[in-house]
Structures are given as structure tokens and as C-alpha cells.
Amino acid sequence: MSDLESQNAREEAYWAEKAASVEADLLTRIPENKLRPRLEPTRRAVELLGDPQKLYRVVHVTGTNGKTSTTRFIERLLREHGLRTGRFTSPHLVKINERLSLDGEPVSDERLFTVWQDIAPILEIVDAELVEAGDTKLTFFEALAVLGFAVFADAPVDVLVLEVGMGGEWDSTNVADGDVAVFTPIDLDHVERLGSTIAEIAKTKSGIIKPESIVISAKQPADAEKVLRAVAGERAESISFFGDSFVYVLFEDGTDLYWARSRVLEYLSQVQSRLPEGAKASLGPDATGVGWIYEYALVDRSGRHDLAQLRSLQDWFLRFELKTVPDVAEVASLGGMVRQYQIVLQPDKLAAYGIPHSKVVEAIQKGNQEAGGSVLELGEAEYMVRASGYLKTLDDFRAIPLMTTDLGISVRLGDVAPLPDLSPAKLAQPTWVVLVGEPGECMQTDTPAALATLHWLRGLRLVPGQLELLTVCAGAVLAAHAGLLTGRDATTHHQHLDELHRADPTCRVQSNRVFVTDGPVCSSAGVTTGIDLMLHRVSAVCGPVVAAKVAQALVVALRRVPQDAELSPFLAHRNHLHPAVHKVQDAVSQATRHDWSLANMANVACTSTRHLTRLFETHAGVAPLQYLRSIRLASAQTALHSGLNVNQAADMAGFSSDTQLRRAWHQAGLAGTPSEPAS
User: Fold this and answer.
1) SS (H, E, C) 380-443
2) What is the pTM of this model?
3) Residue 451 and which of 100, 176, 406, 436 are 20 to 30 A apart at CA?
4) Is residue 244 over pLDDT 80?
5) 587 and 546 assigned to the same domain
């Protein structure tokens, strides 16, 4: 045996011993056959690690029979398409490495031990928290799941094919949000934990179906299929069974039903040629209350009735007659409506003029009626004289007189209801409604002006590219009170995050973000971030050249992107008055490439390493080396956004290699990768 071979053998033996110690540590925990129906401990552990399970796409596999085989099939197919894959399965035969595979091969002993060393302190923290709360420490499988997520993030992989341990809903693997949920045949198993019937077991396993995911299922027993269809219909984007596949298309409230169905039919006809032979695409039945079997129209061929009269005939006579016909459940009427207007008053304007609400109502009633006259007798016939005074346009409403001031100035309805009409028909070009917060600890929503604004906001029908809402700072809170952030991602100033959540609990509040976009709604954290948001929208609508000119005019040096943190790392941990700590922080920020060992940082502060650590933790709330890493990561991000490659960015920021940058990136939980940072 050559010297090189001997060296390699010794190295392999060393890492094999270290990997065996990992398995030994895991075996000291509660065995995996005694799983706990809980998710919070695992979720807490991955949260402290920066949620590594969010760094890659996930295919989640559950069922009763064939899970491991199916997981292997899927992983191999993904590899054949050029993707780097991770695979998580259980149990193992010889070594625990078999459960964690990278590109089809068990994870190396060195990687297994290295990552375990990284996560061990985190597991100890969670264990201590659980014991303090009167609960048991992380189990074997919970700790293994955390290890697996960290291994795959460290690799990193493009896709993880993830097999559940047991069930699905409360399985430790379910802290990952699967883009695809795969169900192998479901049968009675683990009835003491999952349920005594197939339907109950299917309900537990369906917990891996996440919002907007894709569901793929093998042929299932009728009870299991019923459960999966119901859950997928509520959450998933599509569900495919053996023999048929269902795709759910969701439209925003207010979308015309028949327009939406016609668009779906149009797209189905376009994809039919690309489907496998024998596959046929079709649109499901109209499942709303306005579905029809027979359609008819009232037509006045005599010309003696207008649309309003025809609608009255339909609603008050013909509809009731048709409902007496056997098997007719409902008769829906469309068209012929009398045009309606909504008037939004501003209470502060009314108060300024001393005009009560009742006077406005009275003025509108008087201005929108016919006036009767006398009777004329012509040729022994009597003719009634009347004047038609019905209001027909918005300008007619705005011109309604309310009062005359002491100075002889006429006050009209348009003077106390000035908020613009933003109906889609009135928008000739893209329109932005900008809500700006107000000074103070919380938004005042009970003032007359706020109430009037909220009333007006609730009437908006936001459409991407046509009518959009942009909020600055606490303006998002006002939008939430108006119901415009329901089910949407949004942000606001860090002092108003809790207030925003209280205003609309369904709003997905994003913390520490410069701005957030979700369809026609964009929200920014503060005044300066509002500038970033406006430049972002200007760039999207008018192009980057125009946005650059606007930024130049505003003297804005750097335009931030949505994924940037609200609080810059260069400003974080600086809210203190200790001069020595500030001196070290200034030195690190100005020369990130310097060899900043703890000793070198202590020399700058003219103190010992131990004392410097105490000073940093007391005044800055962070260890010196942790602060150094955050500054170097921020510098690397800036370099990457400026166009430098990963190697150049790593060198500029002071990392020893691109590998060290990637590791720090993933440990910090940053979005994307250094090669493809989030934009």
C-alpha cells in the first residue's frame, strides 16, 4: 500500500469514527418508534438555524406502502434532469448516512460530522427550553430531521425529496413546505397514532398538503381519495390521481365568472396538443349559484318598454311564474339594472361648513326627482306638464347645491365629497393610490378624516397594472383596516408590525424588509424605504433608465431591493454609547478584508479579548466575531448586487474563499444563494 493510500485510509477511518459518534449521540435520545405528535420543537430548532429547509424546493412523500421506493424513483428522475438532489428516507440498514443522500450517494462521514458540530449547540438550546417547559428533549427523529435539513442546505441541493417518518400532519419533516405532495397507497397502519379508519389516517397524512402546492396520488381507497380531494380543493393548486388530474384556477373576487371560464377554455384548447395521447382536457361544471341550464332574453319588439321596465317585468312577474315549473330551482336575472352611484362624504368638510348629514340626503333627494306642473287643456284633452330632473352623470351629482355661505359662496356636493372616482372605466393609464402614515405610536382610525378615507378605500377594486396601492410606513395599517391586505404579504415600520397584525390577522406580516410586493399592493417599511419602493415601481412601469434618472434627481446613491433588510447590518448593534466598541465597529466596517481575529479587534480597543467580548455582548448585544460575519455578509451582498462574481465578492468582503461565503450565507438564512441572490 502506498503512502497516499495509507493516508487516505487513515483519514477515512478518522471520519468514520466521527460519524459513528453522531449516531451514538442520536441514539441517546428518545427512540424513533416512540414519536411525539408535535411540530413546535423541530420548528424552533430550524428557526434558530435560519430555516435551512426553505433554501431548496421540496417534494414531500407520504402514504402507507411504497414510500421509500417512490422517494428513490422521484429523486433519480430529478437527477436525470440535471438537478442536484437530496433524499431523506428511513430507516437505515448499516449506517445512518444512508438516510441522507446527496445526488444518489449517502452523505460523507466528514460532512455528516461537520454539520452535526454546527447544529449541536442549537439542539442543546432547544433541549433546555423543552425541559424548562416540562417537556421532553428532542427525539431521535426530530434531531435527525434538523440534521438532514442542515446537511441539504450546506450542500446545497436544488430539490429535496423528503419521506415522512410517520403520518404527515405532525411529523417532524412537515416543518418543510412541500412544493409537491406525493401520496402512495394509504391503508391501515399505526392505528394507535394515526386513526382507526382509512379516512382518519388519510386526514392525518393530508397535513403535508401546503397552500398552492401540487398534489400527486396513487390510486386510493374511496374514503382516502375523498379526504385528499377535499383537502387539496381547499389548499392545493392541482391534484392528480391515477387516471385523472384536477387543476384549480382561482380568480380574485369581482372577476366576471363567464369571462374567467372563457379564458380557461381558451388556454385548455391551446395545451390539448401537448398532452399525452389519450389525455383530454375539459372544464368542470359551473359550481356557483349562478350556473344555468336554460338561458333566455326579454326583447321588446314594440319599442314601448325601456330596460328598467323589462327588468321589473322579469323580477316581479315572469321569475315567479317560471319557478312554478317542476325542477326549476332558481331563476337568475342579468342586465337591465338602473345605474347606481355611491357618494363618499368627508366628515371634516361637513363640520367645517356646518352641514349635517341629513341635509346632504335631502339635497340629493330634491335634486334627483321629477317636478310636477299644472294641467293644460288642448282640444278638450288634458295634458300633464312635468319636468324631468333625474341625475345622469357624476358631474350632475357634484353640482347639487347644499348651502350658501354668509359671504354668498355656493357650497356644492362636490366640495364635501372630493375623493376621486377610481372605477376601472375611468382609468386611462396606470394609477397608484399612495397611503402615507402619520407621526405617532399608532394610526388613528377613528377620526372623521380617517373614517371617510377608510370608507373610500373599501370601495377600491385593485387591479395589477391598472389600479395599485402603495403604502409608506404606517399607511399599511390604514390599508389593513380597509380590508385591502387580507391574505396578502405586507410590511410596515418595525414599530407598527404588531399593530398591522392586529388590524388584519390574515395579513402575512413580513418583518425587517425594505418593501414587499403582492399583486396590486406594495408596502414599504418607512420614509426612506418608500423611496426605494417608488423607484422600484418606476423601473417596472417606465424602465430602469427613467428610474435611474429619478434616483439621480433625488440624490439616491443605492436603490435597495425587496429582500434587503429594513435595518442595515452597518447600522445594527450601534445603539449604544461605548467608545471602544464603536471604535472596533468602525474599523471592521471600513476594512472588512483585514485579518480580523479576536486578538486584532481587541488591539484596536486596547483591551483583552475576554474583556472585548464582554463589552460587545453587554453594549452591542452580539459577540465580536458574529458582528464581523454580519458586516462581511452585507459587504458581499453589496458587491454581488454591483455585478461582481462570487469569488470577487468573497475576496472583497474578507472571506477566505467562496466556500466560506456560501457557508456563512446559508447559516445566516439569507434568501437565494451567493450565485443567485434574491432580487
Assistant:
1) CEEEEEEECCCCCCHHHHHCCEEEECCCCCEEEHHHHCCCCCCCHHHCCCCEEEEEECCCCCCC
2) 0.44
3) 406
4) no
5) no
